[in-house]
Structures are given as C-alpha cells and as structure tokens.
Amino acid sequence: MKTFNDQNTVAIKFKLNTKLIEKKVKPRKLLSDFLRYDCGQTGTHVGCEHGICGACTILFNNKPIRSCLMLAPQVDTAEVTTIEGIFETNEFDDLKKAFKKFHALQCGYCTPGFITTIVYLLKNNVFLNEDEIRKKLSGNICRCTGYTGIVKAVHEVMKIRFNKT
Known about the structure:
Blueprint: E1 10-16, E2 19-25, H1 31-38, E3 57-60, E4 63-66, E5 79-81, H2 83-86, H3 93-101, H4 111-123, H5 130-136, H6 148-161
Parallel strand pairs: 1-5
Antiparallel strand pairs: 1-2, 3-4, 3-5
Helix pairs in contact: 3-6
C-alpha cells in the first residue's frame, strides 16, 4: 500500500531495466517525466503528452504502454523497461543493423518508441507480414521516414528470427 509522507510524496519500489529502484515521487507526476528527470532514462521521449505519438512508449510488465498516460506511483511493484534497458544487452543488435540498412530513422525522436513496440512483438514470437507490421506500429508516429524503412527493417529481422525466407 502506498503511503503519503508529510511532504506529499509516495514511496515506490519497482524494477527499472535490471535495477531495483526505490524512490519518493509526487503523486501526480507523469511516469514519462519521472523516468526522464528522476531516473535518467532520457531515451523515453515526450512528444504529444496525450498518448498519440508513441515517443514515450516503454514496456510496463512486458507490455508496451505510453508513459505519458501513467502517473509515476503506478509503477510501484512493477517491472519497467526503457530503451536503455533494451540496449543493455546485444539481444537486438540485428534490429539496430536492420534499422541502419533500411535507413529506418532520421531525426531519431520517435525511434525509442518504435523499437520498444517492435521488441514486444519480437519477444512474443509474432511473425507478421509488412501490412500487419504497419498496423501493429500504427500507434507510433514518425514525421521523417515515411515508415517504409521501419517496416522493411522489422520484416527483415522477423524473417531471419523466424526462419522465413
């Protein structure tokens, strides 16, 4: 049970990437702001602050969510993975290489949200064709690339990982 102290903060404990975090946070602080400013996870980008653009997508208990739509105290006892946590290992080097090969990023602002969503799909053993990939990534907005490179990169990684040629 979360308790308030005399300074109007909530004590929370959760797993962030590979580390156990214990912090006090204001009850109305957005999770996206908490991750960026209190936890140093600056790869969690804040775009629209309405859950539309997908730039702030993280994995919350292994599912993609918009961190701008949650309050920081809601992560108490949860497992949170940010883009930094995704790239702590080399498990997704193939995805990085495919993004480079297909020029799937330009300014890079939307990339962490895309990668996080894609990682969820890959970890859940979902093989998709290019049209299905577009639908699954439709919650992430990119204003630079036109999506073609992103979709091609994801499709190539899926074909390799799922032995589909």
